[in-house]
Amino acid sequence: MSQIEQYPQIEKLETGIPGFDHISNGGLPKYRTTLVSGTAGSAKTVLAAQFLAEGIMKKQENGVFVTFEESPTDICRNMRGFNWDIPKWEAEGSWAFVDASRQPGEETIYAGDYDLGALLARIESAVQQVNATRVSMDSLGAIFSQLSDGARVRSELFRIASALRRIGVTTVMTAERTEEYGEIARFGVEEFVADNVVILRNIMEEEKRRRTVEILKFRGVSHQKGEFPFTVIPEQGIVVIPLSAIGLVQKSSDVRVTSGNAELDRMCGGGFFGIRLFWCPGRRGLAKRSWQRRLCRRGRMRTSAACCLPLRKAATSFRAMQPGGEPTSSGWSRRASYGWSAIIRRRRGWKTSCSRCGR
């Protein structure tokens, strides 16, 4: 056996989150910890809960949710809007809570060093109880804030990651950050210890919020680079929009329509494709309206219906641009409404009366 064969390729676990498995090239690396970092309102808790919910609903994989801030009751109530019946899954033995949150009015007494051994024992017991393969921890900042320095935070985080890998579960851990493009996490060491890092952003642009997700690193496996937009949909949860996977699905028309200019038709291989929208930008004085008028005139000569909507100038100025080819009252009718005017080509047998006034 060669040395390469001694180290099997890292497997991936499909999260089931729409769009995320595409940008991660198959899901999260199995039996490893993934740090999900984000500011307030970036849907960290939603992603952590959805990671377990999708596993139960789509893969029949049980999960354990470790909460350090919100109570299990609050989490069940908050996630109810996504149609995730967590109390039912608890009763069926598919979902288990490890409640490490502080109780209201509870006094904190410091005696000796802060130790996570008891917490890890509770997590391992819950994993064995429901035979879980997925674990979510929300959020690390609540426990690491009780540690004295960054070195201790790094040591305890490495201890947690090692223990969860030994148990044989795939873990998502959430962490807070204070800036969208600043430090990855609050204590500045979490991203170096975690095997994988996912960043959620909730950016303010022109008085509107825009959510994006970025996979910063996956150790030993590939993933797509850059930020991808996502949204949170009621009764569904997080939906990532992988722009690289978006493509045209409709068939292109093979019908050609003249542009009104023989040379331009030759350059376009016989004219424009029919049933399509064409954008013709240009500076003032480049004959954009003249070309538009000529396009309609050619359609008129071929007994085709044509409709011009001048949004800036009245239809009378449109007809007066080039004498000798202007539409006449016998072949065209004019409509004006809501600040724009229209010239509509009448075709034999067609009625062009207004739906409001009947003219």
Helix content: 25-40%
Topology-level CATH name of the largest domain:
Rossmann fold
State the distance separating the first and last CA atoms. Answer: 88 Å
Shape, per Cα inertia axes: elongated
Sheet having the most strands: 9 strands, mixed
- Quaternary structure: single chain
Number of domains: 2
Strand % is 15-25%
Please compute the radius of gyration using only Cα atoms: 31 Å
Give the rounded overall mean pLDDT: 80
Uncertain segments are 321-358
SSE string, helices as H and strands as E = EHEEHEHHEHEHHEHEEEEEHEHEHEE
Enumerate how many helices there are, as a single number. Answer: 11
Q: How do the strands of the widest beta sheet line up side by side?
A: 5-4-6-7-3-8-9-10-11
CATH superfamily of the largest domain: P-loop containing nucleotide triphosphate hydrolases
Q: What is the CATH class name of the largest domain? A: Alpha Beta
Which architecture name of the largest domain does CATH use?
Answer: 3-Layer(aba) Sandwich
Number of beta-strand segments: 16
Can you describe this structure in just a few lines?
This protein has 359 residues and is α/β, with parallel strands linked by helices. It has 11 helices and 16 strands.
